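Researcher: Please generate the 3D structure of the following complex. Treat every line as part of one assembly.
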Amino acid sequence: MSRDMMSAFELYQPDTVEGAVELLGRFGAEGWALAGGNDSFDWFKDRVKRPKYVVDLSGIAALRGIRETPDGGVEIGALTTLTEIERSSTIQGRYKVLSDAARRVASPQIRNAGTIGGNVAQDARCWYYRYGVDCYRAGGNTCYADTPEGQNREHCLWGADRCVAVSPSDTAPALVALDATMVILGPQGSREVKAEEFFIGPDIDIERMTVLEPGDVLTAIRLPAEWSGARFYFEKVADRNTWDFPLVNIAAAMVVNGQTIEKIRLAAGAVQCVPRRLTVVEEVVTGQPKSAETAQLAGQSAVRGATPLNFNHFKVPLLQNLVTRAIRDA
Ligand SMILES: Cc1cc2nc3c(=O)[nH]c(=O)nc-3n(C[C@H](O)[C@H](O)[C@H](O)COP(=O)(O)OP(=O)(O)OC[C@H]3O[C@@H](n4cnc5c(N)ncnc54)[C@H](O)[C@@H]3O)c2cc1C
Ligand code: SF4
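Model: Done. Output below.
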């Protein structure tokens, strides 16, 4: 594959979602939805992805903004920037786990252009795949990361199925913890998918990380009233404190009655190909006192069944400690 020139593409700039869906449906696998461009232009400039048709969503006003909904929840347009989410008084006041997660993405410049839709729809960050090698995820028949010498310190603890890449998004676990709903418009009409089901692993489709198919546009993300104003916790550990992807992150939403944990949702990023909902921890701590002992127990239960690769054993105690802190400090 020649890498001398960035491939030319035809650019379309619709001003309605319906127009975008019509175009993307027509172009199928040869089309590409463009949001803030952080990830898209990396792929194009590295000559690894070469769509013939690019549909720029940035001129569609209906896809932007944060609005309160009649059922007491909040709807975020998919083209809303991470900076807007980080700074929104509504999100800070009612769903702080999401504004905290958005604040920890990359750098201010990337958050200014990067959208929440692009952040959850971004592709795997495995460096082999990014370099354009013919691994399983790229349609080939090997995984370069899952070998004795493979560079896999960023890779998964669970869910390996030929591919061992992880979900790299910081906002994704926050959306799973909040039990968000993803609203999608596609050639067959509109549908709603829970955040937990929006992300898919290699066992379902090794070439995609979400349920989005060619022609689909993620239009909005809905946060339910149920978790508005709950206690929250978000923490991310990365090699560097800015401009870097999570080694592990944790997002929790919790309701505490007196000293008792009444209900909780917890999800970790960068440990599996999807944000990993920690249902075992939820079961262990629900109905228990919010104490140091419960937090310790939660951390221990979070890592049961983890299967590290050669160079990512450090993620096991890291996840354990993050879960312990989430229960203790939320
Ligand atoms: C140097 C660097 C560091 C980064 N660090 C982090 C980090 O620490 N944490 C983190 O979470 N992320 C990180 N990122 C990823 C970054 O957050 C995403 O690249 C960015 O948020 C993507 O948003 P965008 O609007 O620019 O999307 P684009 O780049 O335009 O699109 C990304 C993908 O999503 C698809 N897409 C976008 N919007 C829609 C939609 N509405 N419907 C359907 N498909 C859509 C596009 O087709 C494309 O495949 C980093 C990126 C870079 C370049
Ligand atoms: S981990 Fe996945 S993306 Fe990375 S080389 Fe292996 S198959 Fe490819």
